[in-house]
Amino acid sequence: MTGQPSTDAPLSTEDPYSDENLTDPYPLFARMRDAGPAVQLDRYGVLAFTRFDEVYQILTDHATFVSGAGVGPRNYHHQPPWRKPGILDSDPPMHTPLRSAMADVISPRTMRTLRAGFQTYATELVDKLLDLGEFDAVTDLAEVFPLRVFGDAVGIAREGRAENLLSHGAMNFSQFGPEDARYEHFMAAGQHTIDWVMSHCERDNLSADGLGAMIWRHADAGAIAPEDAAVLVRALLSAGLDTTVIAIGNTVGALAGHPDEWDLLRDNPRLVRFAVDEALRWEAPFSSFFRTTARDVEVAGVRLAEDSKLVVFPGAANRDERRWGAGAAEFRVQRSAGGHLTFGAGIHMCVGQPVSRLEMDVVFTELARRVRRIEPAGEPVPLLHNTLRGWTSLPVRVEPS
Predict the structure, then answer these.
(1) How far is the C-alpha of 256 from the C-alpha of 263, rounded, in Å?
(2) How far is CA 228 from CA 35, 101, 104, 121, 216, in A?
(3) Domains of the chain by start residue, with CATH
């Protein structure tokens, strides 16, 4: 008996990856949490976990719930991956040197050196946005800022970033979800980017003083294999770019939709770090990812056989009233939300989160300092993606302080 869903959990015939549920997943998430610690997704033949405690348990037990069999529904034990696995879909011992190299590059010391450059461009960009008055918070802010500042920090060429990096990220994260028509769409849309991205992650195409070059120096020292260096630079780009773009857009949307919370932030910009964590909790950029059991195991009374795929929903866990109280569905910038699961947990917690936090801290502090009011200026357009949750368009209007 391997890879069979448990009969200990209630059956759900609902599809978390339908257009309706991707547009607004929270009613479904509430039903799934109320049904029990896990539900069987009939459509996909896997157990889904949506409560905080069980999701946390799974993410922190990397020896039992492995990533090396793939962090999407494809089981690498039986189906080969479409590309060489990297830091996200590997386990120790392969994972250990990759994470060590990445952690050394994205260190507190490095973050301190990046802040000044991030701040210079944030000031320039907010000048432009205030001149516009109305703009799209996704295409004019959330995409522009990380592409510029983190692309420069990594040391990748500016020309071609927008045309390649965003669709490459959407393609990569598609493998975290079901291989359906939506998956095929994003995979096809990103095919043209593969050669460009991997070429620009090679040593000779990176600036000598960027974070990418630092990764290559780990290869020179023998800490990681040379063939892993470019793959790790690609992962580095994702760490500070893909989900950061979505998180910035989601945070703008949350603040524009909650003017009283924006007033609190504007009156006290020191709340920015709290507001960023609360936005990451309240509207997680990641919808779901998968794990595979390394042995027969029981989670909250639900049995899983060895080599079973399961799926966790961090966005559902982040609104679990069992963890966050009766106001879990509310957005509050003064909440201490640092324990959210948007960045994962355990050894696979996103090693690039300091980059995302720095980018968001800089840009939202600048906005809080200079913008009196931010409000919706049109209908937002949701991003319908099996793994990423955000917006493709978010029109807003701002007034200077």
Answers:
(1) 10
(2) 43, 11, 16, 32, 9
(3) 11-400 (1.10.630.10)
Query: In this predicted model, what pLDDT tens digit does every residue of 231-281 receive, in sequence order?
Result: 899 888 877 788 899 999 999 999 999 999 999 999 999 999 999 999 999
- Residue keyed to tokens 């409000």: 375
The residues pairing with 65 across neighbouring beta strands, listed in sequence order, are 293
Output the six-digit token pair for 298: 């029981």
pTM score, whole prediction: 0.95
Q: Is 229:371 a contact under the CB 8 Å cutoff? A: no
